[in-house]
Write a structure and sequence with these properties.
Structural class: mainly alpha
Order of helices and strands: EEHHHHHHHHHHEEHHHHHHHHHHH
Number of strands: 4
CATH topology of the largest domain: MetI-like fold
Low-confidence stretches: 11-16
Number of domains: 2
Number of helices: 21
């Protein structure tokens, strides 16, 4: 069949009645599949292959990074102990003004909760965790709970008098205020304590006594130490990286081995070595005494304080500053400095206005690495820091291992994580993460 166009010229058509030229414009593959569909199918296969390649890494990050962080943040607000152990008591406490002791009805409900818990299997009992939780808020609460639990089966009416005879703390309205306040599945008490605050008798958040304020000052000390260590690593690492960058490759590789040598030694061994070097009868003090710089009775205190923490951590974290700096400096052509000098710039001016600005990406990368690592450091401050050189990470570890107050430890850790993210966000806004360069 043939069709004519507007000018009467016949057009060749196929069996479908469409012009053959239109049919030829529709591209297909060798098997007759439209090219567009074949390209979409190939793109889907490529994306699927990429997802399969990164799936192990994604599973690893979710398992050992994202999930533990999420669990830590949840534990900082999770508060099931009072709700699970004292449901009847909490219901009876509704409407209590928090001033005088509760009435007999509340004490009867408390006895029922104790008896109900005693009938549960040992693994499902909740009175033990209840005592631990209340003891975080009020001293001696754990002893009151455990002692009362043993005597409750012998209690007779009036139950209020029986509880007051069992332990004096039941006669303190502060204990009942804690039970009423913490009788919710979620709590902010851990964050209140992490900010050196507490609840008063009216439920208001007030500042703790001065001798009990430790966490805010620890955060400040941690930030100051991290900034100071980062600055010292820059002062020591910049000349080393610059000298390595201008040496021939063979000699630079030898110096690189010296920079990387500490990584071949255990962190614990390196920290212990600093204890030997810095103690009052150690190598450094003995050398200073032998050359006459200090007297034998005036040896310097360089260990178990903030000085020991700064020295040991600077030595340990110095390679993390040198490596990014060297990788950037190695790519700066020496001809730039020669060109600046040939145009009349002094060596100092050429370095300040030509060379140094090109090293800023390496400085930024090294500073971020050193700062983030140092702000969460734990082993070195624990061994050489003493009391004045401790950091917030040591307090978190203490609550995890000794006091077993995991909720407070989780709150402290969450606040540290949020603080680091805020600082990184500020760095991103002021400098820009795209300016970082590791090579």
């Amino acid at each position: 069949m043939a069709q004519a166009d507007a000018g009467g010229v016949p057009l060749e058509t196929g069996r479908s009645g469409k012009p053959a030229s239109e049919k030829r414009q529709k591209l297909v593959t060798a098997d007759g599949t439209p090219l567009k569909r074949a390209l979409q199918r190939a793109e889907r296969r490529r994306v699927l292959a990429a997802l399969l390649l990164v799936a192990p890494l994604l599973v690893f990050l979710l398992t050992v990074f994202i999930f533990p962080i999420g669990q830590m943040m949840w534990r900082s607000v999770d508060n099931p102990q009072v709700v699970n152990a004292l449901p009847n008591t909490l219901q009876a406490l509704q409407g209590w003004d928090g001033r005088e002791l509760p009435d007999e009805r509340v004490f009867a409900a408390l006895r029922d909760d104790f008896l109900a818990d005693a009938e549960r299997p040992r693994r499902e009992q909740t009175i033990g965790p209840l005592g631990i939780r209340l003891n975080y808020e009020l001293s001696a609460a754990r002893g009151a709970i455990s002692r009362t639990a043993r005597q409750v089966p012998q209690f007779e009416e009036p139950y209020k008098e029986a509880f007051l005879d069992a332990h004096r703390l039941w006669g303190d309205p502060a204990l009942w205020r804690v039970i009423q306040r913490e009788g919710r599945p979620l709590t902010m008490s851990y964050y209140v304590a992490a900010l050196d605050r507490e609840f008063d008798e009216f439920g208001n958040i007030v500042q703790r006594d001065e001798n009990r304020r430790i966490y805010v000052s620890l955060y400040g000390r941690t930030l100051a130490l991290s900034v100071g260590i980062t600055f010292l690593c820059f002062l020591l690492g910049f000349p080393i990286a610059y000298y390595m960058s201008i040496l021939p490759m063979r000699q630079a590789n030898l110096l690189m081995i010296c920079v990387l040598l500490p990584f071949w030694t255990s962190l614990l061994v390196r920290t212990t070595a600093w204890i030997v070097l810095l103690q009052q009868q150690g190598v450094v003090n003995t050398l200073l005494v032998s050359v006459g710089l200090i007297g034998d009775d005036n040896r310097l205190s360089l260990i178990y304080n903030m000085t020991g923490t700064i020295i040991a951590m600077t030595h340990i974290l110095l390679p993390f500053m040198v490596l990014p700096l060297y990788s950037v400096m190695r790519t700066i052509p020496p001809s730039y400095m020669r060109a600046a000098k040939s145009l009349g710039a002094t060596p100092t001016t050429a370095f300040r206005r030509v060379y140094f600005p090109q090293t800023l990406p390496g400085i930024g990368a090294g500073a971020v690495l050193v700062f983030i690592i140092s702000i969460g450091y734990y082993i070195t401050p624990a061994l050489v820091g003493g009391q004045s050189g401790r950091m917030i990470s040591n307090e978190i570890a203490r609550h995890m291992q000794q006091s077993l107050n995991w909720g407070l430890a989780a709150a402290l850790g969450t606040m540290l994580l949020v603080g680091v993210l805020v600082l990184y966000w500020l760095y991103q806004r002021l400098v820009g993460a795209e300016s970082l360069k590791l090579g």
